[in-house]
Amino acid sequence: MPQTNPTPKLVIFDCDGVLVDSETLSNQVLVDNLARYGLHISLDRSMELFVGGTMKGVMQKARSLGADLPADWVSEVYDETYTRLRQGVALVPGIPELLATLKEVGIAFCVASNGSEEKMQITLGQNGLWELFHPHAMFSAHSLGVTKPDPDLFLAAASHFDVQARDCVVVEDSANGALAAARAGMRCLGYAPHDNAASLKAHGAELFHHMKEVPTLIGLS
Predict the structure, then answer these.
(1) What is the C-alpha separation between 215 and 135, in angstroms, rounded?
(2) Residues with Cβ < 8 Å from 96, sequence gap 6 or more?
(3) pLDDT tens digits for 94-133?
(4) Alpha-carbon gap, residue 30 to 84, rounded angstroms
(5) How far is the C-alpha of 105 from the C-alpha of 108, rounded, in Å?
(6) Is the pLDDT of residue 34 over 60?
(7) For residue 158, how far is the Cα from the chain centroid?
């Protein structure tokens, strides 16, 4: 008989690209900004290089590719990104229904992101999810001082809910997130709506393409 995975006690969501459809918007800001500093890349290339990373990491990588970035670049690009996100960002299709299902069956859920709480307040706040996660189900790398692919962000979430790693499921869309889940000893569902399936699969994520698939994947139907 095929092995079945137990229903989790905690589902840990990434934010950008998983709860909110913000990755394309944020990366277009990066593309436009970096062009001003001499680095011309496509949106697809930006997504490939930078999704799931920290802005300090983006700065280092962009400099290595030839961008002549000023010392205060991180603050500059955050300001530009937040301005763009305030203009409107949609939820990932199927997220409201998935969260409602988890709530109905009593499975805890939270968000764990390399982004700041300020950014999550912008993106989740305009979609009615801020109060659902803040403050007791929100874990930000900016607040905790650890970033994916370090597993400690996910382990902190599990500890907060008093749940073992084996009883957690992580929903991620980046290689760094999938690697963090693997290092934490957690099952990872890799959301692959864009051309990111290979990098997710390389770190052991189980691929899926729409949030409506998640209840079946975690044993709810």
Answers:
(1) 25
(2) none
(3) 999 999 999 999 999 999 999 999 999 999 999 999 999 9
(4) 11
(5) 9
(6) yes
(7) 17
